[in-house]
Amino acid sequence: AQTVTQSQPEMSVQEAETVTLSCTYDTSESDYYLFWYKQPPSRQMILVIRQEAYKQQNATENRFSVNFQKAAKSFSLKISDSQLGDAAMYFCAYRSDLNSNSGYALNFGKGTSLLVTP
Amino acid sequence: NAGVMQNPRHLVRRRGQEARLRCSPMKGHSHVYWYRQLPEEGLKFMVYLQKENIIDESGMPKERFSAEFPKEGPSILRIQQVVRGDSAAYFCASSPPLAALYNEQFFGPGTRLTVL
Question: What's the pLDDT score for residue A104?
Answer without folding.
Answer: 77
